[in-house]
Amino acid sequence: MAADRTGSTGFVHHACLYGSDAEFLAMAVPFVRGGLAAGEPVLAATTPANIELLREALGESAHHLDTAETAHFGRRPVDRVAAFLRYHERRARPGRRTRMIAEPVWAGRSARQTAEWKRMEAGLNVLLAGLPVWMVCPYDTRVVPGDVAEAAVATHPVRLDGEQQAPCASYADPAAYAAALEVPAAASCPPPSAASTGPTDDAAVLRLLARERAAGAGLTGARLALAELAAHEAAAYLLAPEGARVTLRAWEEPGAVVYELRRTERDVGGVGCGARGERERTGPGGGLTVPDAAVPPFAGYRPPAPAGDAHGAEDGLWLARSLGDSLEVRARGPETVLTLRVAGQGDAERL
Amino acid sequence: MDPLVRTAELTVVATVSPPGLRIEGVVDAGSHRHLREALQSVASVRGDLRLEMSRVEFLDLAGLRLLMTFARARAARHCTVELAGVPPHLLQVITLIGWDTTPGLRLGAAHGC
Questions:
Q1: Which value does ipTM take for this structure?
Q2: From what superkingdom does this record's organism come (chain A) (predicted)?
Q3: How is domain A195-350 classified at the CATH fold level?
């Protein structure tokens, strides 16, 4: 029977690189059976083909397995983290661990999305730390590109082959991994027609422009209000440190309304679009002049706490991530730049 | 009845029938304190309360949490808080976060935006 030999009661995160159905089952069947035998909730969030394989192999015990078609179990990393936490919250049994097979979709992703999912895999080690969850992330080497397979062994401390566990030699500290990750910039330069306001410490001024541009892009009703709210929460996050001021630039690109929120802690020359040295900000420190204003790695990936708890410092960032199509966090020197993309009126998924 | 809050952005009026508050305008970092105080002023009212929100123009996440926390506190006293006229997008946000199951909270019919 598969057992986690790390002795940890907190989050255990294994990668399983498999190259055949048989190799998938050699890991998944003992993992699921072991969990069910121990009275643990067990989830398989994987491809429909793998779910079918697993059910056939499990026979009667498949009735006790929770399953999710992985593409629909958190569409983006922020949704994925929420889906894991929701499963654990709803299914966890006192004194027992929860097991999850969690195979992300890699095929067909843009380079940027692929980087975001790699970063999330690293981030799970931080975001879920302390939760009594044993998660195995299968990677189908028949399908995933080589760089994704390499990332698997850098973002999971342990590799699982069948029931054999082996430490991943290339496992990296999650924050360091994320900081070093090359994330292709989606940020297009603001066109000359971009609307601009600020710098200001008044969120209402930023919100007003955000709403005007969303309305100008054809958003109406609840979608307009959600765009305004997403931009507001991103702005409010940046404005939280004493004395912070934010400049908003807003424009349209195919498929999205783009909000670039730029916070400068002191009066310096601006960061040019695509300037050398500007990069995705994920690491701590990193030369920011006001350390306590730095955006922590993996900020805004945990959903807000239940009602009755205090408002979390990153709750607004989580909402902006969740309501937007994407949220990039970049920093260079004293500047922090959030680029929020909200789906445009042509987004047929929201018609 | 004099409003409990009257600023350029936010007006909050106590209502008698049904008992509760009518909230109008904008709730953001500049008015959280006012909203908290207005909620506090009806915290000792016995029975169920209704917060009428159809004229809320903007409510941020921290403001929404104040309402959820208020509902939860009422639940501890076996009372409910109905949010009436909640703009549809805020209903989406409440559900997205999972706050729709907050004890003591009742979500009334939405109208307007």
A1: 0.95
A2: Bacteria
A3: Heat Shock Protein 90 (3.30.565)
